[in-house]
């Protein structure tokens, strides 16, 4: 039976922290260096669970650590509280999404307090508060002013289940990232943010993050932006005045182009078909309708038979004047490059598949069998793509290409571009996979788009001083998804007056993608209550960028890319002096149940409140920190809560037994124990800064064992080294098990709070491992020498001597009558025979 239960201890310290605002970040007058530590803010769905417990633990450890290191730490929390789950829950119950949202937020807050998080509770934000989302609207207007927010009609990704559009980033393998429904295309006029203007910067600036962000995340961002280098090549089309441009990464292969392909859904295809025979027009129309039902994924799939319609029109190859038949085929996408390609079947697999399906010529122009080539040493005749079905891709030397012959691929590309630029028939070009960010959503629970539609169909911004455009009450509104925004039916809300002209106007009925909310929230924490700015630039100068950002790999693209984009926009506006929002990024692993992710839908969620009730916060925190490397997934079955519980009880017992007075001079204490203490003081900063929390826990266990040993079998509980070690444990364990840390500190006779105690420097003299040379004698004669620690015990020294080979030889066949040990200097075996 414990004198004071984990729960009583926990309550006591949580109350203390709340009353004293212990973790409030220092203000302007605070001269200490600053650290901004942040966990990706939660979505307030349901209760906190094991996933939250691990995700938010890590940044808390780091924040607590930096406080000991003399830093002014900001570690805030807020809620990403707009979005579909609240709306769907409201629809189910015929309720207001606000109720569900704010009820859950209150539960989360209580959960985090109960879990002992060291947040600055004066800076809490909720993105669904008008005080927050007015700044989303302000951001929208700033982007609009800079030409970075625009409206366009195009085929967008439509989730038929959620009845709303999706950004490209929200379509995963052709399905809605949220609900898994197959995404279809729909033509709509929508608002976009022009992230493509920032494509080069978003890509190039990743290099400087190498070593600070997980490499995998950087790679995912690079691939998402997907910059290709190549050329735009102009092709004359018979019967058309204007040339048509195509993008190619392989302009060197122009001599091998044998046909030309247009995306059926590109305007050019319809135009070319319109100038063709009635039969072609019909076949084309038919094909176009089929294409429009397909997803981009299907269209680009390589194992699907190629289809297409010959348009009976011809393009002229600019390098040799050859006539290239023009086809409409769905493997060419309308919104990539220029929506048309020069097809080089010998060297492009998709073109080859098409050529073989429709019996089009295949002409090799790169010999890849040469030394250094992709098929080095092969026989070009045997490798003919027309018969093998495999295109010759990669390096080689030009052939059948006039005076390019003999040039390496790279040189041939450069030469071709140079010539086209001189002739005015082409130019160097870059292309990106990245598309503009579609931000309109046809849902209620989000930030209203602050634009007005006038009667003459012009669209004008709501003036800044009229913000926020608040969401109307849900009363009388049907939130059920029906393909258009529920806000459109809020008649009184939609109908308004343009303040500039006094003319009647309609509000834009759509709301913003909630990724807008999270693209800048880390700046809002710096001046969360300001009604003057979204964030105070002076505060941003002091605190930002975020020094340590913690979150899941699922945000590798969307959230991080959008945040990086908006940060660069703020930089260009002169509001901040940095271009990357997160200096260091850590992706933590997931907690798994029998190998699979814990989730509501699988019904295997372990709720935080249950565990807190059973074991208390510190046992859970310690067990999770000990469960393995931060980046690894952790099996819940492998997390030992009872082990952690026992260890923490052991820690407190050490505090209770320590009997030397506060301020006792440790220098007179047991050196072995002091060595363990000081080695940990020296090593722990590296362990925390490299997020090796599991190793830190193991080392703390070692130190507590050392204390136990000194108390039980050494100098005893009154040895000042015991106090020194116990105080070190209190300070360090506070980062992981904060209630226990505070309690131990108090039991050691100190005033709270241990969280503000500075990290002592390790004594360098205690870090060198002193060794001495021992002489091992047999009947007084030196038979061997041993290098041993200066503080070795007699028993250990005798054992070491007996284990030595030379000593064993000297003792062979003899009877040992007496052993004299004087650690660490001498061992003498007295022998007979
Ligand atoms: C001729 C060529 C020859 C090509 C060759 C490749 C190899 P990335 O790297 O993804 O940018 N392309 C261009 N626009 C396209 C579109 N709208 N839909 C489908 N394919 C398109 O790919 C660029 C290459 O993809 C371009 O280079 C073009 O084919 C094709 F041996 O041009 B290439």
UniProtKB/TrEMBL annotation:
User: Which ranges carry the Aminoacyl-tRNA synthetase class Ia domain?
Assistant: 434-633
Motif span ('KMSKS' region)? 597-601
An annotated GO cellular component: cytosol
Q: Which residues form the Methionyl/Leucyl tRNA synthetase domain?
A: 40-182
Q: Which residues bind ATP?
A: 600
Q: Where in the cell is it found?
A: Cytoplasm
Superkingdom, natural source = Bacteria
One GO BP: leucyl-tRNA aminoacylation
Which EC number(s) does the record attach to this protein? 6.1.1.4
What catalytic reaction does the record list? tRNA(Leu) + L-leucine + ATP = L-leucyl-tRNA(Leu) + AMP + diphosphate
**Residue positions of motif 'HIGH' region:** 42-52
- Tagged with keyword Cell inner membrane: no
Report the Pfam families cross-referenced here. Anticodon_1, tRNA-synt_1, tRNA-synt_1_2, tRNA-synt_1g
- Output the InterPro entries linked to this UniProt entry: aa-tRNA-synth_I_CS, aa-tRNA-synth_Ia, Leu-tRNA-ligase, Leu_tRNA-synth_edit, M/V/L/I-tRNA-synth_anticd-bd, Methionyl/Leucyl_tRNA_Synth, Rossmann-like_a/b/a_fold, tRNAsynth_Ia_anticodon-bd
Q: Which residues form the Leucyl-tRNA synthetase editing domain?
A: 222-420
Question: What is the uppermost EC class here?
Answer: ligase
Keyword check for ATP-binding, yes or no.
Answer: yes
Q: Where are the transmembrane segments?
A: none
Keywords assigned: Aminoacyl-tRNA synthetase, ATP-binding, Cytoplasm, Ligase, Nucleotide-binding, Protein biosynthesis
Annotated Methionyl/Valyl/Leucyl/Isoleucyl-tRNA synthetase anticodon-binding domain residues: 674-792
What Gene3D superfamilies does the record tag this protein with? 3.10.20.590, HUPs, Isoleucyl-tRNA Synthetase, Domain 1, Valyl/Leucyl/Isoleucyl-tRNA synthetase, editing domain
Annotated GO molecular function terms are: aminoacyl-tRNA deacylase activity; ATP binding; leucine-tRNA ligase activity
Similarity section? Belongs to the class-I aminoacyl-tRNA synthetase family.
The protein, known as: Leucine--tRNA ligase
| Organism placement in taxonomy | Bacteria, Bacillati, Actinomycetota, Actinomycetes, Micrococcales
| Underlying gene | leuS
């Amino acid at each position: 039976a414990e004198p004071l239960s984990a729960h009583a201890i926990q309550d006591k310290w949580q109350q203390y922290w709340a009353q004293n605002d212990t973790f409030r970040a220092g203000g302007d007058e605070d001269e200490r260096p600053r650290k901004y530590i942040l966990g990706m803010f939660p979505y307030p769905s349901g209760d906190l669970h094991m996933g939250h417990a691990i995700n938010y633990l890590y940044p808390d450890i780091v924040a607590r650590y930096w406080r000991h290191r003399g830093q002014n730490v900001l570690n805030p929390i807020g809620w990403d509280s707009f979005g579909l789950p609240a709306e769907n829950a409201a629809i189910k119950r015929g309720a207001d999404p606000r109720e569900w949202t704010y009820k859950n937020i209150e539960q989360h807050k209580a959960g985090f307090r109960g879990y002992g998080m060291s947040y600055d509770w004066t800076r809490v934000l909720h993105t669904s508060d008008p005080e927050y989302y007015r700044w989303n609207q302000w951001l929208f207007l700033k982007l609009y002013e800079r030409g970075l927010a625009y409206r366009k009609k195009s085929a967008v990704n439509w989730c038929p289940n959620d009845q709303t559009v999706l950004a490209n980033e929200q379509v995963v393998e052709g399905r809605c990232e949220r609900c898994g429904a197959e995404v279809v295309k729909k033509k709509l006029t929508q608002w976009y943010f022009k992230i493509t203007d920032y494509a080069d910067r978003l890509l190039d600036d990743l290099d400087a993050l190498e070593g600070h962000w997980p490499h995998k995340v950087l790679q995912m961002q690079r691939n998402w932006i997907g910059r290709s280098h190549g050329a735009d090549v102009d092709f004359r089309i018979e019967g058309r005045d204007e040339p048509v441009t195509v993008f190619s990464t392989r302009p060197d292969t122009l001599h091998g182009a044998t046909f030309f392909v247009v995306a059926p859904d590109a305007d050019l295809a319809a135009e070319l078909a319109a100038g063709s025979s009635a039969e072609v027009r019909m076949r084309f129309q038919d094909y176009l309708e089929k294409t429009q039902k397909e997803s981009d994924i299907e269209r680009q799939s390589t194992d699907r038979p190629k289809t297409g319609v010959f348009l009976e029109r011809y393009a002229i190859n600019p390098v040799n004047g050859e006539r290239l038949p023009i086809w409409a085929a769905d493997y060419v996408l309308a919104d990539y490059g220029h929506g048309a390609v020069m097809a080089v079947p010998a060297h492009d697999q998709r073109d080859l598949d098409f050529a073989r399906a429709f019996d089009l010529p295949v002409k090799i122009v790169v010999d890849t069998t040469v030394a250094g080539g992709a098929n080095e040493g092969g026989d070009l005749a045997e490798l003919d793509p027309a018969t093998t079905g495999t295109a010759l891709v990669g390096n080689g030397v030009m052939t059948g290409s006039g005076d390019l012959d003999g040039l390496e691929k790279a040189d041939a590309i450069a030469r071709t571009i140079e010539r086209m630029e001189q002739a005015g028939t082409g130019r160097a070009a870059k292309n990106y996979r990245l598309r503009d960010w579609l931000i309109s959503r046809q849902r209620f629970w989000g930030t209203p788009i602050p634009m007005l539609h006038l009667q003459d169909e012009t669209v004008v911004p709501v003036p800044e001083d009229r913000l926020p455009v608040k969401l109307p009450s849900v009363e009388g509104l049907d939130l059920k998804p029906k393909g258009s925004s529920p806000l459109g039916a809020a008649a009184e809300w939609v109908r308004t007056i343009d303040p500039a002209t006094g003319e009647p106007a309609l509000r834009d009925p759509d709301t913003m993608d909630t990724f807008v909310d999270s693209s800048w929230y880390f700046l809002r924490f710096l001046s969360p209550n300001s009604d003057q700015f979204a964030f105070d630039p002076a505060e941003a100068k002091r605190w930002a960028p975020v020094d340590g950002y913690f979150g899941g790999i699922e945000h590798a693209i969307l959230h991080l890319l959008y945040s990086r984009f908006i940060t660069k926009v703020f930089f260009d506006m002169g509001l901040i002096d940095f271009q990357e929002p997160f200096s260091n990024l850590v992706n933590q692993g997931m907690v798994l149940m029998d190998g699979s992710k814990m989730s509501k839908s699988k019904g295997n969620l372990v709720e935080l409140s249950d565990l807190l009730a059973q074991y208390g916060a510190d046992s859970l925190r310690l067990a999770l920190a000990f469960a393995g490397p931060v980046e690894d997934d952790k099996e819940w079955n492998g997390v030992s809560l009872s082990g952690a519980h026992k260890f923490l009880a052991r820690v407190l017992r050490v505090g209770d037994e320590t009997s030397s007075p506060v301020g006792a001079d440790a220098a007179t204490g047991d050196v072995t124990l002091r060595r363990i203490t000081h080695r940990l003081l020296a090593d722990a900063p590296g362990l925390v800064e490299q997020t090796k929390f599991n190793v830190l826990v193991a080392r703390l266990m070692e130190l507590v064992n050392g204390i136990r040993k000194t108390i039980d079998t050494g100098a005893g509980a009154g040895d000042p080294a015991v106090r020194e070690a116990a105080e070190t444990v209190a300070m360090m364990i506070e980062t992981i098990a904060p209630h226990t840390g505070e309690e131990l500190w108090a039991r050691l006779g100190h005033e709270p709070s241990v969280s503000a105690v500075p990290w002592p420097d390790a004594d360098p003299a205690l870090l060198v491992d002193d060794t001495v040379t021992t002489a091992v004698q047999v009947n007084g004669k030196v038979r061997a020498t041993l290098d041993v620690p200066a503080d070795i015990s007699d028993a250990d020294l005798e054992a070491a001597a007996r284990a030595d080979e030379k000593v064993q030889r000297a003792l062979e066949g003899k009877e040992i009558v007496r052993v004299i040990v004087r650690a660490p200097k001498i061992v003498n075996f007295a022998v007979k025979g």
